[in-house]
Amino acid sequence: MHDVRTHYDNLKIARNAPPEVIRAAYKALVQKYHPDKHGNSERAAKILLMINEAYAVLSDPEKKARHDAWIRAQAPRPRPLPLPAAAPPAPVRRGGWMWVAALVLLAFGLGMVMALQLPGVAPHLR
Length: 126
Description:
Layout: H1 7-11, H2 19-32, H3 42-58, H4 61-74, H5 96-117
Helix pairs in contact: 2-3
């Protein structure tokens, strides 16, 4: 959901919170932001006003249902997924046959060296 501030956010509760949790959150926030604790600051008074408004809506089942419907209406519409970009062409590998040829020659050469060092090899091969 995009940045839509709801009464649930103001009371810092989940959308599926039962009435007991709503009431407990309201009480805790009222105690925290009470103007007497903040020297009658404007900020605390504004926050307390938001908390009172949120509780008034969420504690009334009809107002809460309208608020929930409003939240669902604010949900962004799903966008179609972007098409994947075409894969870049595979790099052309050149010279691979040279490695194969080098390995074959190396194996042949090692085989010849080993054959010449074996005792049962015919003397005309030595």
